[in-house]
Amino acid sequence: MDISTMERTRIIPVVVLDDAADAVPLARALVAGGLPLIEVTFRTAAAADSIAAIAAEVPDAVPGAGTVINTAQVEAARRAGAQFLVSPGILPSVVQAAAAAELPIFPGATSATEIMTALDLGLDVVKFFPAEIAGGVKAIKALSGPFPQVRFIPTGGVNEANLTAYLGLSSVVAVGGTWMVGKPLVRAKAWDQITSLAAQAVSEAQSA
């Protein structure tokens, strides 16, 4: 995955799918709304099949695997066709497995020590999670002082109300969020509504 896609769209929908049959229509809805990057979390048994379906049937989508917490999931994501990985924390073995699989990974880092670990592993883009609980905009500003080379993807508590505050920070490359792909919307198969929410998010991101 070319990070320029992330720099352009600036939003990564974080998707939890219980049924892989929903993966393709959801991905098409998000792409139609201008959000091709799709993080499918490994919180459910349907994750790998969902990523594989998106990779096979939605060519304009860029599927990734989220909540990757061990090396077995790195391999499962690679086999499914994931183009990037996201982890809630930073674990050298997982980062090294991602490198071996030639997949970009964005591990969670909210402290100076975790950021230094990421830098030591050759990474300069990290997930800031859980963003709001970990101090939000103020924390990212503070950490950007000693680490000007690091870029952040805040996720966790990011929504339409605080989206522009995060994206207004020069150190934030993109945000991750669920507000346009909430479980009730997916269960209702509200694909048109998801497209509308995605398009609205893109519009707000462009104004930040």
Structure report:
The protein is of the alpha/beta class and 208 residues long. It has a single domain (3-207), classed as Aldolase class I (TIM Barrel, Alpha-Beta Barrel), CATH 3.20.20.70. The protein has helices at 3-9, 23-32, 47-57, 71-80, 92-100, 112-120, 136-144, 163-167, 183-187, 191-207, and strands at 11-15, 37-41, 62-66, 85-86, 105-106, 125-128, 151-154, 175-177. The strands form three sheets. It has a four-stranded parallel β-sheet. Strands 4-5 form a two-stranded parallel sheet. It has a two-stranded parallel sheet with strand order 6-7. Helix 5 (92-100) links the parallel strand 4 and strand 5 (105-106). It starts with a helix and ends with a helix.
Provide the CATH top-level class: Alpha Beta
Shape verdict = globular
- Helix/strand-derived category reads alpha/beta
Overall mean pLDDT stands at 97
Assigned CATH architecture: Alpha-Beta Barrel
Which percent range fits the helix content?
40-55%
And the CATH topology?
Answer: TIM Barrel
**What portion of residues belong to β-strands?**
5-15%
Indicate the radius of gyration in whole angstroms. Answer: 16 Å
Report the count of strand segments. 8
* SSE series: HEHEHEHEHEHEHEHEHH
